[in-house]
């Protein structure tokens, strides 16, 4: 964007993050997200999707926790469904998503 002397805004950065997620460029998606002063659901969901598609489940779950802390709702269809399916397949669903329900289970109860 600097080539045309344009200033990025939330819409253009979110579009770039989504494009990166679709092209499996999770690292670039995360760098773009970090450039936003106040990321929204669209950008966070796209970054979460990029991590999930790359198999970075712990990072994707960390994003879910950060989004919950910021009171942002991820896009269930594109983000949560693949994450939940993968965790369920690995037998980690209740352990990893206990933070959503406020369950007293903690990371210390996870198998090593």
TrEMBL record:
PPR repeats: 40-74
Keyword Nucleotide-binding: no
Keywords recorded for this protein, A-Z: Repeat
Transmembrane segments: none
Positions in coiled-coil regions: none
Record InterPro entries: PPR_rpt, TPR-like_helical_dom_sf
Origin: domain of life: Eukaryota
Protein name (Swiss-Prot/TrEMBL): Pentatricopeptide repeat-containing protein
Gene source species: Polarella glacialis
């Amino acid at each position: 964007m600097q080539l045309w002397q344009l200033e990025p805004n939330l819409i253009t950065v979110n579009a770039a993050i989504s494009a990166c997620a679709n092209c499996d460029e999770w690292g670039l998606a995360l760098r773009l997200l970090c450039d936003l002063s106040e990321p929204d659901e669209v950008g966070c969901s796209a970054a979460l999707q990029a991590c999930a598609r790359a198999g970075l489940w712990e990072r994707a779950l960390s994003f879910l926790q950060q989004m919950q802390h910021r009171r942002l709702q991820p896009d269930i269809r594109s983000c949560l469904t693949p994450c939940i399916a993968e965790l369920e397949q690995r037998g980690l669903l209740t352990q990893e998503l206990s933070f959503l329900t406020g369950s007293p289970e903690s990371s210390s109860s996870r198998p090593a």
